[in-house]
Amino acid sequence: MIDLKRLRQAMVLAETGSFSRAAEALNMSQPSLSQSIRELERRLGAAVFDRAARTVTPTAFGLALLKEGADLVARAEALERDLRRRQGLETGRLAVGFGVYGYRPTIPAVAAAFAAAHPGVALRLMACGWRQAEDALAARTIDLFVGEPIGSPSADLYELRGLQPRAGRLVVRPDHPLAAISEPGLDVVARYPLAGPRLPARVFAHFPDGSALGRLDHASAQFVPHFETDSWAVVTGLVLRTDAIAFAHTSMLTGEAAGLRVLPIDTPWLHSMPGLVWRRDRPPSPEAAAFLTLAERTDAAISP
């Protein structure tokens, strides 16, 4: 009998082409994943993957298995969703990934409303960038992603519902050298490192070449900050304790971040375009559909 759990793991491994990335997406250790795939191959009596030095690719047998297996997994998930619809939302689980700029104030408000409406549903929230979100959506370790999908995700793979664009500002610590300048230009700002998640290449285009902010990854068309992190708490700590600068929405400047200084620079091009993202081949479960409705309703009531 084919183990659906191992079959799903094989599907993620085939999609990522790497044991390490697949293990991360599946939230398991690499040795455990390797052992699980070996056990799948032992039960089937054939190799599912060719293991080269740097990449992992399906064998001819593996391709046939994964093609048929995708339909099997989809039908199993459809059955599970149907059973949950019949039972209502009394029990269940939902995992939602969120990016730095899709977090405040949407996620706390939606999570609180969802918990109040569906107290029996276990809700898992995971901070992640778009790269991690893609792997996690493929691995089915998250059901939805709230944030900006950097790099224009393929419409063949994802469904996307846009949320309100959020205007951004440049922030520094109160005694930062830039805070003493009445009208700092972008050429001066670019002398300092940036802290935060990866950003669309369109943001980088406004700064001079050779800046200390970070680098442009041409392969992915993403801007990689000098201090790359998907945690706003880490961003805040870095900006308060180093010469790093950051992008932020005004709604993010609470708690420790309330001590940050907004630079007097007009940046109409500095905005995030968050959305609600899920895999097209995995229609929203009843729990996910309820979360989507709440997220759209909550976002519409929040000033951009």
Descriptive report:
The chain is built from 10 helices and 17 strands. The chain folds into 3 domains: 4-84, Arc Repressor Mutant, subunit A (Orthogonal Bundle), CATH 1.10.10; 90-165 and 274-300, D-Maltodextrin-Binding Protein, domain 2 (3-Layer(aba) Sandwich), CATH 3.40.190; 166-272, D-Maltodextrin-Binding Protein, domain 2, CATH 3.40.190. Helices cover 39% and strands 20% of the residues. The chain is of the alpha+beta class. The strands form 6 sheets. It has a 5-stranded mixed β-sheet, with helices on both faces. The protein has a 3-stranded antiparallel β-sheet with strand order 14-8-15, covered by helices on one side. It has a 3-stranded antiparallel β-sheet with strand order 10-12-11. α1 packs across α3 (30-44), α1 crosses α4 (60-87) and α2 (19-26) packs across α6 (130-139). The chain has helices at 4-16, 19-26, 30-44, 60-87, 106-117, 130-139, 186-189, 201-204, 232-241, 286-300, and strands at 49-51, 56-58, 92-98, 121-127, 144-147, 158-162, 166-167, 169-172, 195-196, 199-200, 214-217, 222-225, 227-228, 246-248, 261-262, 271-272, 275-279.
Q: Which structural traits does this protein have?
A:
39% helix; 10 helices; single chain; 5-stranded mixed beta sheet; D-Maltodextrin-Binding Protein, domain 2; 304 residues; 17 strands; 3-stranded antiparallel beta sheet
